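As a warm-up, study this chain.
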Amino acid sequence: MKNQQDMLFKVIGSPFVNNEDITLPTPEEVDELFDFSFENRVALLFLLTYVELGGKLTETGQHNLKKLQNRRIDTDAILIKVTDILDQKYAGEWVFFKTLKPFPSTPNDTDWFPFDVSKHGEMCQHLLDNGFTFLEQAPLQTTLIDDSGVGVADSDKRGGVWYIDCYREPGADYFIYLDPKKMRKHLYYEDVGDKKLPNLKASAELSAICFHNVFPERTYSIETFYLVLHYLNVIETTGDQANFIATVKENHIERAVSANLAITQSLHEEYFGSKAEFLESILNEFSEEIREGVNYSENGVLPYNFSKLCFWRCFFQKLKDPISFRSLFVQFYHMLNPVFLWGVIKILKQRMSKGGTYKQM
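Now compare it with the structure written out below.
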């Protein structure tokens, strides 16, 4: 595992370091790394970077790359379909998040939410009336599937392409960690093919991902490392540093962001021999006292589990956000139901144990 992780970092590199003068693994070694890279959600990035650096793929490697590229194309087609349907009546009233990554990726699902919570039900119904089918319901989200996935899709989200998570508000159970109204100012349109898709700016995306990693997931993965680096690269390139800092503070997630950034910086220094200067400038905006420790793994292998103390401190800091504080009482109300209470207890027990990362399916 450690050797596989080391080789992944070596090939993929860092957007803050020149990655051209490296000794590439053999095509056969790349094949051996594929399953590991796929489970850690960086397979497409890994294979494309390897080819860009001059690596030659075996027939198996070429097949794997083509398969991932086709999955990306199929996913983009459904993103465009969702956009076309929702924009018929709700243009400018909703946004994708955690879906369009800052590097080539093959998502397991598509996530979106409306800026106006009251429109969630009618927007979901509009999708149901135009080529999507209901799969399942969760407290803050409705999962639909594209009609092409009927009979194939399941709750494990295998295959990745067909699943649409329609969030009423981004959160875990009934606890809301992102205020949709605040996100309207972060809306921008990203070109996918010849279509412009509504997406969150890097400042908002990275803020949401950092908090979600700590609460409720409590997990920092190889994908996290590259999401943090590439979103920071976008933020630096677009001159959006001040907006990112303001977004973090406005949403009361300084602890969660600092925890993610500190671990990213520690890994960057270990694997690339230097700190990422822009990352360090962001870290210096927050108190050193609120950072997570840098002992990210006993054997140096990701995923890392954020400490229990970090988990609860980030949660209690988030309660300074009115929408999160109010949603906590909704969560407590539903926990009066013994079945739901037992489910929450099981999830918390799982979160407090040493676990793995969310693997690509």
